[in-house]
Amino acid sequence: MQIEQQLADIQNVVDDVLKLALSKGATQAEASMSKVQGIAVSSRMQEVENVEFTNDGGLGISVYVGKRKGSASTADLSKAALTLAVEKAVDIARYTSEDPCTGLADADLIATEFPDLDLYHPEELDTEKAIKTAIEAETAAMNYDSRITNSDGASYN
C-alpha cells in the first residue's frame, strides 16, 4: 500500500475516534496514531544472529470532560478495540479531579502550517540487503586493526 493511502487511512481512523469521543460525552479530544513497518538484522562474528520484522501500530487518545482528563491507548486497531479505548478514556475523565488548566489550546494558538522536515525516506524491506549491510559493517570494524579479535556484533535497523 502506498504511503499516501496509509496516511489517508490513519487520518480517517483518527477522525472517527475523535467523533466517537465527542459522541460519548467528551467536550474535547485529541488523538495520535502510529504505524511502523521495518526490519532489524543483527550479526555477530560475521554470522547472522537475528532477523526481525516489525509491523506495529497503536493509537492514544486523551479526552476532556469539562476540566477533567482521561487517556487510554491501544495497539489493537480494530473498531471494537478503538471504541473500548475511547469509552475507557471518557470513563477515566469522569472520575478524575477537575483541573482548571486542563484542555486543548485555543484554536488561534494551534499551528496550522508545518514545514517539510524531510524525515520520511521509504526503503524496500530487503532482508538480503540488511544482512549484507550488517555483516559488512562488522567486517569493516574487525579489519580496521589486527588487534581486534572479537566483536559484539553489528546491526541494521
From TrEMBL:
Cellular component annotations (GO), alphabetically ordered: cytosol
Gene Ontology biological process terms from the UniProt entry: proteolysis
Gene3D superfamilies, per database record: PmbA/TldD superfamily
Domain Metalloprotease TldD/E N-terminal: 29-93
Pfam families registered for this protein in UniProt: PmbA_TldD_1st
SUPFAM superfamilies to which the protein is assigned, alphabetical: Putative modulator of DNA gyrase, PmbA/TldD (SSF111283)
GO molecular function, one term: metallopeptidase activity
Official protein name in the record: Metalloprotease TldD/E N-terminal domain-containing protein
Organism from which the protein derives: marine metagenome
Higher taxonomy: unclassified sequences, metagenomes, ecological metagenomes
